[in-house]
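Sequence, please.
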C-alpha cells in the first residue's frame, strides 16, 4: 500500500487496515522465530505500511487541530 492509497482511505478504513497490518506483522515476527519465513523482506514492508498508516492518522489529527 503506497501513500496515495493511504490518503484515499477514510478514517475508519485506515483504522481497520492498521489493525490488519499489525496482526500480520505479529504473525510474521512469530513465524520468523519459530519457522522459516518465505519472504524475509515482507516484515519490513509491513512495518512501512504500519508507519504510513500511523503517519496519515497523525497528519489528519494535526490538520483537524489547525482549523
Amino acid at each position: 500500500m503506497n501513500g496515495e492509497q493511504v490518503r484515499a482511505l477514510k478514517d475508519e478504513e485506515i483504522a481497520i487496515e492498521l489493525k490488519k497490518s499489525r496482526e500480520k506483522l505479529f504473525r510474521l515476527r512469530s513465524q520468523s522465530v519459530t519457522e522459516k519465513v518465505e519472504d524475509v523482506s515482507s516484515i519490513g514492508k509491513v512495518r512501512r505500511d504500519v508507519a504510513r498508516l500511523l503517519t496519515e492518522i497523525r497528519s489528519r489529527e494535526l490538520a483537524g487541530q489547525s482549523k
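Residues 41-66 form the longest helix (26 residues).
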